[in-house]
Every structure is written in C-alpha cells, then in structure tokens.
C-alpha cells in the first residue's frame, strides 16, 4: 500500500470570519424582537406581525465620537409655573381637571371610547380659547368638522383645519404657524414616514407621540392628542403612550344618568384626583358645576336609600347609596354591587351580621352607588351599612340626613377625612342632620348624631328619631 504524504505548506488556511450582519424579527405592533420568525408575536399575541430586520453589528459597534450634552445650571432657570401663565380653556370643569388650565408646552392625551364626545369637547375648547387653533383630523373631512362647529354655533375664523396624516408634514405646518393650541384627532390615524409599520400600530403611535412631544417642548405649544380606547378598554399603545405625554385624561360615560365624566390618570402639572362632569346636549357639552344637586334624586324617600358625601379631588359632593335586601329564594345568598367594591360589601355584610346582630345569612343584598363614578372613599362604609340595615329592617332613613364614617372589623365607626368640608357641602344643600363618628366636631347649622359603632346605628334606625 502506497503511503500518501501531504505537504501542509501547500494548503491555504481559511479562517471563517463571523458574519457582521444579523437578522432579527421585530413585531410591528409592540416592537418586541426575536431571533426566529414565528406566526404569532409571543409578547403581544398579534398574528403575522413579525417583520425581518437586519442589524449591522459592525457599524453598531463602531465608537461614535460625540460632543458632550449641554449642562444646565438649574439655579439660573426661572420657574415655569410662575413665568408662563396657564391658558384658561374657558371651561371651568376642564381647567380644574388639567390643574388650572392648559400649560404651555404640554402634551395632553385625551382618551375615550368612539362616540363618547372627544371631538365635540376639543371643538368647544377651541371655541372658548378664541386664539389661533390648528385642528388636525385624519378621521373627518373639512366639511364634517365645519358641520360640527356650525352645530355647536362656534365661530371658525380663528380655527385652521389640516386634513393630513403625515406627522412630518403636520410638524412643518406647526413650526410655520406656531398656533396657541394644536389638536390631533386622532393619534391612531397619523403616521411618521420614518417608521415602516402601518398607522395605528404601536410603533407608529409611539414615534408620532415622541415627535409631537418634541415640538411641544421646543416651541412651547400645547398639543392635545385624541386617542381611541380599544374594545378591551385600553388606549391603543396603552402604557407606552402614557409615559411619553405630560397629562392623560379620559372621557367616560356615567351609567345611571348618562353624564360624561372627565378624569386624569396622570398629570405632571396638577392633581390626578379632580373630575369634571358634563351633560351632552343637542348643542354640545354643558358643564355640571354643582354635582351634588344632580346625583341625589330630589324628594325620594324609600327604604334602603341613604345619602353620603365623598371627595373627588378637592371637591366634596353628595351621592346616594341604594340597597335592596330580599330573602334568598334558592341556593346561596347573592351579593351584587355597582359603583362599589364587591369584596368590601362582603366585609361590611359580615361586620353587620357579627357586630350588629343583623341576620343577612339568608338574604340577597344588592347595592348601587351613583353608577359609573367608582367611589373609593372609605367614608362611604357607614352609609352602605345603614342602607343595608334600612332595607333589611324596613325602616326609612329621612332624606335630609347625611351619613359619614368608615367601619372597622370590630363594628367601630372611624373618623372621617375632611369632615368639615363634607358637612358644609351638606349644609349648603339644606340637610338638617348628619350621622358622624363620635368625636370633637361641632356644628351650629346641622344637628349632629354621633355614633361609636354600628350597633348604635341599628338602634338609631329602629328608634323614632331617625324615621
Ligand atoms: P364625537 O365628538 O364625534 O365623539 P368622538 O370624537 O369621541 O368619537 O360625538 C359623538 C356623539 O355626540 C354623536 O353620537 C353625537 C353626539 N353629539 C351630541 O349629542 N350633541 C352635539 O352637539 C354633538 C356635536 C354631538
Ligand atoms: Mg371623533
């Protein structure tokens, strides 16, 4: 057998260089990145949204020489709030929700379900401002917008309309015009040419919002972005938009009366507890400056109805708690609550049973508190307990009595936050008596019934003084 001897010197040696171009798959909805393609995004669950992208690692790794960022001495900067006066929208309810008016240079997101009245509300703000406003709409034509303004009897000589969806073109127009207020109706219809995904996708919404934020801050122009809420109750681009903007306000409908409630979930320039209440009429929104008078039905007097007072932001208002207690016909007793936490209701029923000796074990309890307002004030506890006891014992609580207090697990009635403000609101609306926790508080105008625990409350309701 012949032996082959290889001369290694005659062979070239190939060294395989690593490929600097890397392929990744990015989701056009949520921006999540994956090394492999799949039909469904594992992050947001969107189908067919993964798109191939190539990343040049070599150029990304190159050292970039940059000049240092400008360092600002804060002691030389004058205060924004004292220097720049807020712009009043002319609608008191909106000004309060915004923390005292429109802040120059702020980016505001106005969210709400389709048809709730977002376009109507911004049209009314534009009218009241009476200075140059640019209304950008990708949803409606100039004719439709003009029709709405005419219906609302709004003069349009200072309102300019842009039927445009390209963010870059909108920005160029804003730079040129420098309006007092810009309205973008809606953020879901605009797109930036620099982002490859379609309008309405998360990437587009985020990129467009960042563009608007930049121009708002640089040119000190307030901008309102309108955002639709999707079927599952979230703003498309949910959290990613909320951290970009300065203020997030939602317009929602209140169930029982159909009022529109405006509330903030984020505000860099004010409190987030304030709410604004409006009524939708044939000529647009009407402000409800006195919600107490609206949320309590005048003159009604039946068992299970009790009036209490809650704080929403800085404003106290009276609300009605209604309870219906009936014998359970079949199976387990039912507990239903609207506008009140169901777990809290179960706790209060257990406290009433154990501490006040009120038998609710074989009773259905249905509770209704000013639908849609989502009251979280713990001082509503006592009114809820009294409403349940009133219905269970068939004793009417006179409707000129306001009931305030938090109830503990021992059945004790705890002190009320901002008691003075709540009592004076009741006095203003001609209430004659108030049931409050035992304590120092005194009033000349209203008769105070001080109680220590819910056992005393049940005693009161069965005695002649209350009925
Ligand atoms: P719109 O502002 O178009 O809602 P959105 O922009 O949130 O989709 O308003 C929708 C509803 O409001 C519409 O069904 C008609 C009603 N509406 C009134 O009741 N009164 C009015 O004055 C206006 C302008 C609208
Ligand atoms: Mg609209």
Write the layout of secondary structure elements.
Layout: E1 21-27, E2 33-34, E3 50-56, H1 57-61, H2 80-83, H3 92-97, E4 107-112, H4 118-129, E5 133-137, H5 142-151, E6 159-162, H6 167-177, E7 181-185, H7 202-219, E8 223-228, H8 238-242, E9 247-253, E10 260-267, E11 275-281, E12 284-287, H9 291-295, E13 305-312, E14 315-327, E15 335-338, H10 342-355, E16 363-369, H11 381-392, E17 401-403, E18 406-407, E19 413-414, H12 419-428, E20 433-437, E21 447-451, H13 454-462
Parallel strand pairs: 4-8, 4-9, 5-6, 5-7, 7-8, 15-16, 17-20, 20-21
Antiparallel strand pairs: 1-2, 1-3, 9-10, 10-11, 11-12, 13-14, 14-16, 18-19
Helix pairs in contact: 6-7, 10-11, 11-13
This protein binds thymidine-5'-diphosphate and magnesium ion.
Structure description:
The chain has 467 residues and is α/β, with parallel strands linked by helices. The chain has three domains: 3-59, no CATH class; 83-289, Rossmann fold (3-Layer(aba) Sandwich); 295-462, Ribosomal Protein S5, domain 2 (2-Layer Sandwich). It is built from 13 helices and 21 strands. It has helices at residues 57-61, 80-83, 92-97, 118-129, 142-151, 167-177, 202-219, 238-242, 291-295, 342-355, 381-392, 419-428, 454-462; strands spanning 21-27, 33-34, 50-56, 107-112, 133-137, 159-162, 181-185, 223-228, 247-253, 260-267, 275-281, 284-287, 305-312, 315-327, 335-338, 363-369, 401-403, 406-407, 413-414, 433-437, 447-451. Strands 6-5-7-8-4-9-10-11-12 form a nine-stranded mixed beta sheet. The chain has a four-stranded mixed beta sheet with strand order 13-14-16-15. α10 crosses α11 (381-392) and α11 packs across α13 (454-462). The chain is globular and about 105 Å long. It starts with 20 loop residues before the first strand and ends in a 5-residue tail after the last helix. It binds thymidine-5'-diphosphate (TYD) and magnesium ion.
